[in-house]
Design goal:
4-stranded mixed sheet; 742 residues; Immunoglobulin-like; 12% helix; disordered N terminus
C-alpha cells in the first residue's frame, strides 16, 4: 500500500509539472529560486542546479543539490537575472532557463544516451584513472636498453608518484588534457605529447617529469591513454551526492583576471575564525605578484601589486620568460619575480604572506658565517628564497621583512607574541618571526630566528655539536623536489636531517612545530624550539608507512605527504597526495624516539592511521587517481560537519573531501561547474555570525590551476589562436540542515 501511495504521489507531481504548474513546498522567498527537477524516469535526486549571472560586479554562481524528491532551493541570491540549468551524473546538461529570485521552476533533465555522453561531465580524476601504468612486475626499471622505465624507479608506487606530480600545477584528465589539440600537426600521438609537455612557461618542469618515467615509455603511456579515449573508452560513473552531501550550498565568484593563478586564500585567523567577520577574502596571485581581494557582500573583486625590496624589473621571474616553445595560448603574459605564495591573517586582521623581496643569493651579512648574529653563529644560512610581508587593510600599506631563511607556507603559534613560523621545501632550517617584537621595534633582524633540524641520535636528550652531516647524493631539480642524502654515520653524535617542509603547522597543545616533506614515500618532522634557541632546538622525523619501509598502518600504505594541519587534541593530519589518504599521526602512541636510527624516521608506525578517501583507482592498482594538494582541519565547525573535522582538497576532482573521524565516513563536496575549473590548493573557514546558524559560517577555497584556461569554456579560438577567457573562482562551501533549508 505504501509503495502504491508513493507512486501515486509521484504521478500527481509529474502531471502538475507537465501541465506547467509551479510546484512549491513553501511560499516563494524573494531571495531564492526553488523548484523541482524531473526526467522521463521521474524526480532526479542528487543532481546539481546551477544559477549563474553576469549582472553583478563579478560573475556569480549559486549551486545546490536536489533532494530525494528532486526538489531544490537556491538560497541567498542577490537581485539579478540568472541562467539556471541542471547537471548530474547520468544526464546531459539541461537547456538553461532565465529566472529571477522569487521564481519557482520545473526543470526537465535528459538522461544521457551513451556512456560517452554521460562521461562528458565526470571529474578529471575519473578520466585519468584510465591510464595504463606498467605492471608491478616491471620494476625496478631497466632503462632505455631494457623495458624503457627509468632505472631510478624501483617500484610501481614510485612511478605513480611521478604521475601524481603532474597534478601539482593543473588537472590531468580534463577535456583540454585528455584530448589531442592540433593532433594533425604531429606524426603520432606520442609526438604530440612530446611537444605539449615542452610548451609554455612551465614546459621545462613538465618535460623533466616526463623524462623521470623513462621518456619514451612515458610518452607512449600518455599517448595510449588519450588514443583510447579518442576511440570511445570512458570511465565508470561517479556516485551522485548522497545523504549530507545533498545539503551542500556552493557560492562562486570570479576574481583576478584571465592570467590569474590564486595559489591560496585566507578569510580569517586560523586560531579564531571570527576575525575579519563579513570582511573581504584575500588571495595570492602567484603568477602575477598580486594580492587579490573579494568582498562577498558587494561581489566586488580587486587586486593590488605587492611591493619588493629590490626593483622587481631587475629580478628573475619564477616562471620562465624566454627559451621555451610557445604555448598554444596567444596572449600569455605573466611576470612574477616575487612569486607570492601563501597568506595568513593575524589577530588584528593583517594579511601576512610569503614572497621573494630580493634576489635570494643577496643575503645580508648578518645571515652569514662570521656574523655576530646568534643564529648565524650556530647555523649560517647562505641563501633565502621567499621572505615575508604583511598588508594592513586599515591603512592599505605593506610592510616587508627581509629574512635570512626562505619561506613557503606560514602559520601563527598560539603564544602571546604571535610568533609566525615559516616552512620551505628543501630548506635546512625552520624559521620564525616574533611579530610582537617586530611591531614594537620594526627590527626584522632582531625579531627573527631559525633552527636546523637535528635529531637526537646519541640518545642524551639534547643536541650538541659536532653532528653527523648529510651528504647530498640527489639534488632537488625544482623548488618542491626533495634531496637524497647519505651519512658517514657516527652513533656517538646527533644527526642533522635535510627534510625541509611544504606544509607547516603549530600544535596548539604543546607548541611544537610540524612540517610535511613532499617526497617518496615522504616524511613529517617535528621541531621543538625550546627555551634557548637555537641551542635548545630538537627535531624528530617520522616516515610514512610504505612499501619502502615494509610496514602498514591499519592495513594501509601510502606516500607523498604535502598538506599538514592539527586538531585541537594535538593529533596531526596530513593528506597523502600519492595514495589519497587522510593520515593522522598521534605522537602520544610512540615509544622511544631517539637513538642511532631515529634520523631515518622509521619508527612509531603505531602513531599512524591511514584513512582511504573515495575515488577511482588506476588500472590494475589499488592507488587512487585523485590528488590531494593540501588539507585543513575544521577545528571550530565553520562548515557544519562538526569540530575537528579534517578536509582534503580533491584537486584532481573539483572537490573538497571531509572525513568524519567518529565514524570514518567521508563527505564529498563536488564543484560541478565549471569542469576542471576548481583546482583547489588551500582552504580555510570563517564564522561571520555565530547566531545565524548555517548561514553565518562557511569554508572558502579557490582554484589554483596554473592554466585557468583549461577550465570548461575557459578559452576561445580567434583567428586560429587560443585565448584565455576564464578567471579563477573563489568558492564558499556551506552545509545546511537539509536540501530545502533556507
Amino acid at each position: 500500500m505504501r509503495r502504491r501511495l508513493e507512486r501515486l504521489a509521484v504521478g500527481i507531481l509529474l502531471a502538475l509539472v507537465a501541465a506547467g504548474f509551479a510546484v512549491s513546498a513553501q511560499e516563494a522567498d524573494p531571495a531564492t529560486i526553488a523548484g523541482v527537477v524531473t526526467s522521463g524516469g521521474g524526480p532526479e535526486a542528487g543532481v546539481w542546479v546551477i544559477a549563474e549571472t553576469g549582472d553583478l560586479p563579478t560573475k556569480f554562481r549559486k549551486i545546490v543539490v536536489t533532494g530525494d524528491d528532486g526538489r531544490f532551493l537556491l538560497p541567498e541570491l542577490p537581485d539579478a537575472t540568472y541562467s539556471v540549468w541542471v547537471r548530474g551524473y547520468g544526464l546531459v546538461d539541461s537547456t538553461p532557463v532565465t529566472a529571477a529570485p522569487g521564481a519557482d521552476l520545473a526543470l526537465t533533465a535528459t538522461v544521457a544516451r551513451t556512456p560517452q555522453e554521460a562521461a562528458a561531465v565526470y571529474p578529471a580524476a575519473h578520466w585519468l584513472s584510465l591510464i595504463d601504468v606498467p605492471g608491478a612486475g616491471e620494476f625496478p626499471g631497466t632503462g632505455p636498453n631494457g623495458n624503457g622505465i627509468s632505472e631510478q624507479l624501483r617500484t610501481r608506487d614510485e612511478y605513480l608518484y611521478n604521475v601524481k606530480a603532474c597534478l601539482r600545477c593543473h588537472q590531468v584528465g580534463g577535456a583540454f588534457t585528455r584530448g589531442h589539440p592540433a593532433a594533425e600537426r604531429y606524426d603520432s600521438s606520442a609526438d604530440a605529447w612530446d611537444a605539449r609537455v615542452r610548451m609554455g612557461q612551465r614546459g621545462a618542469e613538465m618535460s623533466m617529469w616526463m623524462s623521470r618515467f623513462g621518456r619514451e615509455r612515458g610518452l607512449d603511456m600518455f599517448a595510449d591513454w588519450s588514443d583510447r579515449i579518442a576511440t570511445g573508452e570512458a570511465p565508470l560513473a561517479p556516485p551522485r551526492p548522497q545523504g549530507v552531501e545533498r545539503n551542500l550550498v556552493l557560492t562562486q565568484w570570479e576574481w583576478t583576471d584571465e592570467m590569474g593563478k590564486i595559489h591560496d586564500e585566507a578569510s580569517t585567523d586560523k586560531r579564531d575564525p571570527t576575525v575579519n567577520a563579513n570582511g573581504p577574502i584575500y588571495g595570492v596571485d602567484i603568477a602575477n605578484d598580486n594580492l587579490a581581494m573579494l568582498d562577498p557582500n558587494t561581489h566586488t573583486a580587486t587586486m593590488v601589486r605587492i611591493p619588493t625590496l629590490a626593483d622587481r624589473s631587475t629580478m628573475r621571474a619564477s616562471y620562465a620568460q624566454s627559451g621555451y616553445p610557445a604555448s598554444r595560448l596567444a596572449d600569455i603574459a605573466r611576470f612574477n619575480p616575487a612569486s607570492i605564495h601563501n597568506p595568513m591573517l593575524d589577530s588584528r586582521g593583517r594579511v601576512w604572506y610569503t614572497a621573494t623581496l630580493r634576489p635570494p643569493e643577496n643575503q645580508p651579512d648578518w645571515c652569514l658565517e662570521g656574523s655576530d648574529n646568534q643564529y648565524a653563529e650556530y647555523f649560517p644560512v647562505t641563501r633565502s628564497g621567499r621572505n615575508v610581508s604583511y598588508y594592513d587593510p586599515e591603512t592599505g600599506e605593506f610592510t616587508m621583512v627581509d629574512t635570512c631563511f626562505g619561506s613557503h607556507h606560514l602559520q601563527f603559534a598560539h603564544d602571546e607574541n604571535e610568533t609566525l613560523f615559516l616552512s620551505r621545501p628543501n630548506s635546512d632550517v625552520f624559521g620564525w618571526v616574533d611579530t610582537k617584537l617586530f611591531d614594537e621595534t620594526g627590527d626584522g633582524r632582531r625579531a627573527q630566528g631559525w633552527c636546523p633540524t637535528v635529531v637526537d641520535t646519541n640518545g642524551d636528550g639534547r643536541i650538541t655539536k659536532p653532528w653527523n652531516e648529510p651528504s647530498v647524493v640527489g639534488g632537488a631539480r625544482f623548488e618542491e623536489d626533495a634531496t637524497r642524502s647519505t651519512y658517514d654515520f657516527d652513533p656517538a653524535l646527533d644527526t642533522r636531517v635535510a627534510v625541509g617542509a611544504y606544509g607547516i603547522i603549530v600544535n596548539p597543545v604543546d607548541g611544537s612545530v610540524w612540517g610535511a616533506q613532499d617526497s617518496y614515500p615522504g616524511k613529517i618532522v617535528r621541531l621543538v624550539v625550546g627555551d634557548d634557541p637555537p641551542e635548545s632546538c630538537i627535531a624528530e622525523v617520522f616516515e610514512v608507512p610504505s612499501e619502502r619501509w615494509d610496514v602498514e598502518a591499519n592495513g594501509e600504505r601510502g606516500f607523498m605527504p604535502r598538506g599538514l594541519d592539527v586538531d585541537r587534541n594535538g593529533v596531526v593530519w596530513t593528506a597523502l597526495s600519492g595514495t589519497n589518504h587522510l593520515a593522522s599521526f598521534d605522537r602520544s602512541r610512540c615509544g622511544s624516539l631517539t637513538g642511532p636510527t631515529a634520523h631515518t624516521g622509521r619508527h612509531c608506525a603505531e602513531g599512524w592511521t591511514l584513512h582511504p578517501l573515495p575515488g577511482p583507482t588506476f588500472k590494475g592498482t589499488n592507488v587512487r587517481a585523485d590528488y590531494n594538494y593540501y588539507n585543513w582541519v575544521d577545528q571550530f565547525d565553520t562548515l557544519g560537519l562538526g569540530e575537528n573535522v579534517p578536509i582534503a582538497t580533491g584537486t584532481g576532482s573539483d572537490s573538497l573531501v571531509a572525513l568524519l573521524p567518529a565514524t570514518g565516513e567521508t563527505v564529498v563536496m563536488r564543484v560541478p561547474y565549471p569542469l576542471a575549473g576548481f583546482h583547489p590548493r588551500g582552504l580555510d573557514g570563517r564564522i561571520d555570525d555565530p547566531d545565524a546558524g548555517w548561514k553565518g559560517r562557511g569554508v572558502y577555497s579557490s582554484t589554483g590551476s596554473d592554466t585557468v584556461w583549461h577550465a570548461e569554456d575557459g578559452f576561445a579560438v580567434e583567428d586560429g589562436e587560443y585565448r584565455s577567457i576564464s578567471k579563477p573562482i573563489l568558492v564558499k562551501f556551506q552545509i545546511r540542515p537539509h536540501p530545502l533549508a533556507n
